[in-house]
Structures are given as C-alpha cells and as structure tokens.
Amino acid sequence: MTIALINNIPAVSLAKNPIAVKLQTDACISSAGTKCTVVLDFNSGEASQSETFIFNYTKISDEQLFTFRNAPNNSGVQLPAFVSGDKHEWLDSIVLYLYKNYYLKRDWTIARVDETISMEAKFAGTEYNVTGVNNVVNMLYVVNNGTDTVVEDNFSIVMDIFMDGEQISSQNIVPDDDQYAVFQIADILLSQIAGHFPSYLLNAPQKATGVYKAFKLVWCEYYGDPPAYKGVTESSEYIAVRGGLSFNDFPNSNYWTTWLPANKRFMSWKEKTRRITQTQSEFLNFLNHSATATSLILKCKMNYSDGTNSTVTIYTEATIAQKEIWCFPAGYIQIDIETKKTAGKTVSNYQLWVEDQAGNVISEVITFVIDIRTYENERVFYFENSLGGIDSLRATGKRQDSISIERSLTEKILSDYWESDEAFRQIENYDNSYVLEYAISSGFKEKKAVISQMIELLISRDVREYRNSKLIPVIINKDSFTLYKDNDDQYFLSFEYSDAFSNKAYSEI
Fold first, then answer.
1. 124: buried, middle or exposed (CB in 10 Å: 19+, 13-18, 0-12)?
2. CB 258: neighbour CB atoms within 10 A?
3. Helical H runs in 152-248?
C-alpha cells in the first residue's frame, strides 16, 4: 500500500509553466478482476453442415448464433464446416471467420491451440461472462467466467502543498483505471509568489525572496468506510520561481538541470550589451545554479576611453546557498564606478559577471555602454520580465500626455412644488477622478534583439516608470502593437500607457 512519484519534478520549477505531479498507487484495487475464457474443444471430431452454437455475453444485447456451413459467407455468424483435408487448417480457418464477427473482433483474443480454439476476453469483468447453447455434436463448449475488479470504498489520492511549514493547498483526485492521479500545481504555487521589485537606488546585493519560494509535497491514500488517511509520504524540498518560458521552448528546455548551468544566464533575455546613462539604475537577478559555490562575487572590468582597463571586485556575498536568487545592483552610480575607476580616466563601458569563491565564472558577462547623448523626451521603464527578473527600457522618442476623466453624476427628482433657485442643481456632480495617460515611442533601436525586450515590457504584470525620483506603477493600455522598422534596419515601438491609479484631487507639491 504505497504511492510512487512517477515523473521527475525539477529541483527548481518555473511556476508560469505547467508543473505536474504524477502519482501511482497500488492500494486502489482490493481484488483484481479476472478475464472470461472460452474453449471450443474439437478433440472428439469435427463440425458438420448446419450445426450451431450460441455465444452470448453480458456486454452485448444481440445473441450471436453461429452456424457451420460448407460454403460460409462473410456475415460474421457463419463458420466453415469440415469437409475434408487437414484438421488443423480447418480450425485455423474457423479462427479467421470468428474474427469476422464485429463483437468478437472488438472484445476477444482468439487462437487455435492444438485441436481447440481458445478465446479470452480482452478485459477483466463479469460483463464479458458467456452464456450459450451448444448444438455441435463433436464440440465441447467450456466456459470459465471472469470476475469484476473490486475497488476500495471511497478511494482517492490526497496531495497537500506546504510553504514555510504551512499548508497552502489540498487536492483530492480519484485515480484512473491504471491507478494514476495527476496534480497540476503551477497556478497554486504562482499565487504564493508575489515578485520582487528592488529600490531604485539599491546599492548592495539583495536576496530576491519575493521571486522564489521553497515548497514540499505531502501525499497519502484516502479510503474506507468511513474513509481514513493512510500511508503519508513527504517529498524533498523544491523551489518554485515566479518565471516561465514560452510555449514552444518549455517542453524540452530542462531549464534548471541542463540549460542554466550550460548558459549561465542572468534572469533576463535582454541583450548582453546594454546602452545606459550614468544616472540610470540597472539590476541583474542571478539564480545560483552552482552546487559548489559558497560565495557570490560580483566582478567589474572597466574599459577606458584610452584603450586600457582595470578589474575590481564590487561585492562579495558570503552567506549564500544553491537555488537562491540574488538581485545585484548594476548601474554606474549604484556600484560607485567613480571611486573604483583609475583616477583621471573616463569609463566608456564596463562589464559585470559573477564568480564563486574559487574564481570560477558562474554567470554570463554583461557589458554596459555609457551613453553620453542626451534626449529631450527620455523616459526609463522598469518591469518584471518573464523569468522573474527586473529589466529596463529607455524610451527616447516623443511622448504625448493626455487625461481621462471619470465623472459620477446623480439626478434629483423634482417635486410638484419646486421653485427656481440659482444654487439648485437637478444634476449633481458628486465624485470625479482622473487618470494620466501617455502615448510614447521607444525611439530607434539598433538591434532587432531589442524587440524581444519590448515584448517583455508589453506582457509584464508589473511595469514602473522612473519619474520624479520615484518608480511609478503604470499600465500598458493597448492589446495589439506594431513593431516598426525603417529602411536602415532600425526598430522602434509605439505604445500607450497610463498611471496605475486614479486621482480625486490635483496638487503641485
């Protein structure tokens, strides 16, 4: 009486993709059913013209009357009578004609065994039990009826999910005929992972605990009259991440076990070379896939305008564990490039990567190019990407601002004695609010790869615009967008958005 976990659950699972738990029990059936067997025994002779036998079983309502004929047709109820020749060949031909019967073909396995014809139901159960009449003189008609499968009363498999020692879900599924039960748990896990949005001026590594959660599974059998819980098993600990892959990439990705260790990517699909300003904040979320790392060390190589370079350690985080997610600040001011660079030199770009305590590079290398150009209409958006990390998009095109007003009106009913009053309002405006709305262009981008980052922005659940030294939550308003391309292979995106709140008052503090 045990339950077996049939499928492999990755140690780290992406909760925006399906997470299935397939369990199989061996206790659902208290008594396995048996199959009905029938033997047509011709050891004492052969069948002659016009002899008959009736073959009927519970599953079908039509009685099957079989007649032996010297020249049988293909009706499915006529069988060849013995005329002359080899007896075994004659019996083999009977098997072929029995298979011309629709019901026997569907429900029975038929074969000749020496001078008998053996028939076995394809499935167990009393619905295949045979009743019949034998009018064939030289045929012995032997029936061994089957039995039904007996299932335990009220049987089901129960599976609970625990996070931080607390039960967050309990599911109950009746196993299928093969005693399997499949639990889909991704949506349950995702609902418990809120996400992690760092402070704009984050200047030290921060464990992104809002992006991932540890969980355990507990399962058992539940049956009897009255039913009771039996055979409780607790799984090992798994990690669920507030991230996912596209429909086409997910099924064969092996993101945690194969892809991530091989590619060492940060939690972003953004291009590896990124153009930023000196004042712009950036973030690199790192999912620690290394089983041997005891420290995470953020390294920085600064490349100067004169062609020289220098490399320094930015941060060392010594209290770490595998499967944790860390958010590293990566902006020019955040990591204090000015005090770390060689005095008197100008940084044209800098590269960041993560090493372990032994100096092994365990992440990709990201290059930040310092953009000294200024744009009159520049806006910077930060958003949760598909993997649960934080990405940014600089929009340098023009922006058009507008306002949407929502009014709540009430209309008074005039009495028969109503008299005019200059302060009287039949229609009264009792509640107004407004939402700021914007239409903006991303500005031209040099690489088509940037388009994927725009798509990430449009589908993100949490988008914020850096405005007035704050990260202001906004909502992307349109559902369909055009990714524009000019003749010089430059790309840009136009989109509309609004503040994620309404205002009932105006101010200019």
1. middle
2. 11
3. 186-190
Report the distance separating Cα 245 and Cα 189, nearest Å. 16
Q: What are the φ and ψ backbone dihedral angles of 66, each rounded to 5 degrees? A: -100, 135
Give 54's strand partners: 65, 133
pLDDT per residue over 85-133, tens digit each?
A: 999 999 999 999 999 999 999 999 999 999 999 999 999 999 999 998 9
- Residue 36: closest CA among 85, 109, 103, 115: 109
Chain center to CA of 279: 38
Place of tokens 């002899």: 51
The letter for the amino acid at 345 is K
Structure tokens at 258: 């194969």
Question: What are the percentages of helix, strand and coil residues in the chain, rounded to 5?
Answer: 10, 45, 45
| Cβ–Cβ < 8 Å for 48, 161 | no
Outline where 407-483 has alpha helix (H). 449-459
At position 478, the amino acid (one-letter code) is: K
Amino acid of residue 193: I
Maximum Cα–Cα distance across the chain: 120
Structure tokens at 31: 């008594």
* Whole-angstrom distance, CA of residue 193 vs CA of residue 184: 17
Amino acid at 94: I
pLDDT digits (tens, 9 = 90+) for 459-490: 999 999 999 889 999 998 876 566 665 555 66
| Distance in angstroms (rounded) separating the CA atoms of residues 353 and 314 | 10
b/e 289-313 (16+ beta carbons within 10 angstroms → b): bbeebeebbbbbebbbeeeebeebe
The angle subtended at Cα 451 by Cα 368 and Cα 196, nearest 5°, is: 65
